[in-house]
TrEMBL record:
GO function term, MF aspect, one: serine-type endopeptidase activity
Gene Ontology annotations of biological process type: proteolysis
Entry keyword Cell membrane: no
Taxonomic source organism: Parascaris univalens (Nematode worm)
Domain Peptidase S1: 23-282
Signal peptide as annotated in the record: 1-18
Protein's name according to its UniProt entry: Peptidase S1 domain-containing protein
Signal found in the keyword field: yes
Keyword vocabulary terms for this entry: Signal
Cited Pfam families: Trypsin
Length: 304
């Protein structure tokens, strides 16, 4: 048993894990280099004056993949729209339909690795949401000046009735997000960090380095994609930002400033929730669209 599971299991009684919709320190990048990554706008059903943001990925012409917990503990937030940001801070906005599919597991599933917590036995930890847009975006020809593209999931055969994942080695992973940074709250800037994810069996995680070099997820980064090269097949979504925590009793979790809190960022392993994503696309009536877009015009080398 490696160090992380031992530490987490020993700490489960004493540590309260908070789901932070919170990459600080990461490098600012031009959103046009990542035309599948979008800023997700959420509206509070009870307090409209207090909106929130997450990060998402366009996986077909009208479907966005993000984190399930973005809707809030009591589903008090709704997906309102997405923005394709530009360096000049102007953006193109597209409105959501209100149709969603979500699966959100308890964090105890991650902590104890008790697969019996899951209704979807045999799959990984799930914190996913799919929602649809009113507009169907034109995504296939960026050379014509279009600003949109899609990013692939690591699926062996999109036409299969039961999706399985590509087992090639992953490399050169990076995390993307529109979240808060060391200077303050989310500012519409897309940021990225390079990281080496580690496998926890049912999730992926990345520890904060004690020298503070590595950035971490922050408010607004939830649902942001971890994209990696998969063999020689180009970039795919391998993870989704889910939550962060410090397993040290009595130590608060911060996005930045603390270098020695043993902070971990935890990511949904998309390879292990592909059947759920397939189920969600079926429920939303978007599976055929997804298949067509992936076969016809998915941008394998997103960001290159």
């Amino acid at each position: 048993m490696n160090f992380l599971p031992t530490l987490l299991i020993a700490s489960i009684v004493d540590v309260v894990i908070s789901f932070e919709r919170r990459i600080s320190i990461g490098d600012s990048v031009d959103p046009k280099d990542y035309p599948s990554v979008v800023l997700v706008n959420l509206k509070n059903k009870w307090k409209p004056q207090k909106p929130a943001v997450c990060t998402g990925s366009l996986i077909s012409r009208s479907v966005v993949l993000t984190a399930g917990h973005c809707t809030g503990e009591y589903e008090d937030f709704v997906f309102h729209s997405i923005d394709f940001m530009k360096r000049a801070k102007n953006e193109m906005r597209f409105i959501a339909t209100g149709e969603i599919f979500t699966v959100l597991d308890s964090e105890e599933y991650f902590l104890e690795r008790r697969y019996s917590f899951m209704e979807h036995v045999g799959l990984g930890y799930a914190d996913i949401a799919l929602f649809t847009l009113k507009d169907q975006l034109s995504i296939c020809n960026r050379t014509a000046g279009q600003d949109f593209s899609i990013i692939k999931l690591p699926i062996v055969d999109v036409r299969s009735g039961n999706w399985t994942f590509i087992e090639d080695k992953i490399a050169d992973c990076r995390l993307l997000g529109y979240g808060a940074h060391k200077e303050g709250s989310p500012d519409g800037q897309l940021r990225t960090i390079n990281l080496t994810p580690r496998d926890h069996g049912n999730v992926l995680y990345a520890p904060l380095l004690t020298d503070g070099i590595q950035a971490r997820a922050c408010c607004g980064d939830s649902g942001g994609p971890m994209i990696c090269h998969v063999g020689n097949r180009g970039l795919h979504i391998i993870g989704l930002t889910s939550f962060s925590f410090s397993p040290i009793l009595g130590v608060s979790r911060h996005c930045f400033g603390d270098k020695d809190t043993m902070l971990y960022d935890v990511f949904v392993d998309t390879r292990k929730v592909l059947p759920l994503i397939q189920k969600g696309l079926k429920k939303l009536g978007k599976l055929d669209e997804f298949i067509e877009d992936n076969e016809r015009c998915a941008m394998v080398a997103d960001g290159n």
